[in-house]
Amino acid sequence: MTSESAPTTVLLDVTAGVATITLNRPEAMNSLDNATKVQLLGALREVADDSAVRCVVITGSGRAFCTGQDLKEHISLLESGGSDALFSTVDEHYNPIVTAIAEMDKPVVAAVNGVAAGAGASIAMACDLRVVAEGAGFNLAFAGVALSCDTGASIHLPQLVGRAKAMELLYFPRTVPAQEALELGLATAVVPVEDFDTEIDALATRLAAGPTVAFGAMRRSVAFAAHHDFAEALAFESEQMTRTGSTHDHRAAVEAFVAKQRPQFEGR
Q1: Which residues form a coiled coil (predicted)?
Q2: Within its chain, how far is the Cα of 95 from the centroid?
Q3: Per-residue pLDDT averaged across 220-227, rounded?
Q4: What pLDDT sits at residue 71?
Q5: Cβ–Cβ under 8 Å, residues 19 and 49
């Protein structure tokens, strides 16, 4: 994912069908400089294409999940007149990153170990589930630096909390603590810090043992329905039913049901 001269700021581990992608700039609160964005996109595309991966977990090292754009690099580009590189990063990095998460044919979990701010919050919101450690939180920090929202925030934030609350959080950025995030729908679960790793492992293991093709079809169907009319959504559902109905897992599950046994899914 990196050249020999570049530091490894994104770690990738694949174990027992679970790919864990860890943002690894703890000294910078896992903020996203260009090198890290390139590595993150490479890791996401790698696991999306790996048939051995049946669940993806995105997390951060140290005290933060991800605090979004590296503002030190941002300021340097502003001062050097590198405006092209400054704002082309949305099309070159952030949009491909969130697209890779959204279009993956396998479940994606955000293990929000600490603050998720700006594009970091957007990345977490693009995942299917957000397990949040007590003491962590979300901050839609864009207005604080006089920028619009990016990395899919305009799509996923209203879907999770509704338009009115989304606008409030965007206009008046603050850190939404874990428990409030749970009440708003930003968090799927809030977990004590001492139980965080165990809970993430259990959830990822459960997802990795599930019907991977069906999970992928479900997330595609839900995303499609959000932006199409009723008839189009039903037609897409039909396509996905046909697709999943031809899988090995479907046949095995039906046979297991008839035999009153628990199905063993292989993700195919």
Answers
A1: none
A2: 13
A3: 94
A4: 78
A5: no
Tokens of 178: 């874990």
C-alpha distances (whole Å) from 129 to each of 83, 166, 193, 207, 247 are: 35, 18, 17, 11, 25
Q: Show the tokens assigned to 94.
A: 């952030």
Which string of b and e fits 170-201 if b means at least 16 CB within 10 Å? beebebbbbeebbebebbbebbeeeebeebbb
Whole-angstrom distance, CA of residue 194 vs CA of residue 187: 18
Mean pLDDT rounded to a whole number for the chain? 93
The predicted structure's pLDDT at residue 5: 55
Helix (H, G, I), strand (E, B) or coil at 6: coil
Helices 119-126 + 153-161 axis angle, to 10: 60
pLDDT in tens, 87-106: 788 999 999 999 999 999 99
- Cα–Cα dist 128/222, whole Å: 11
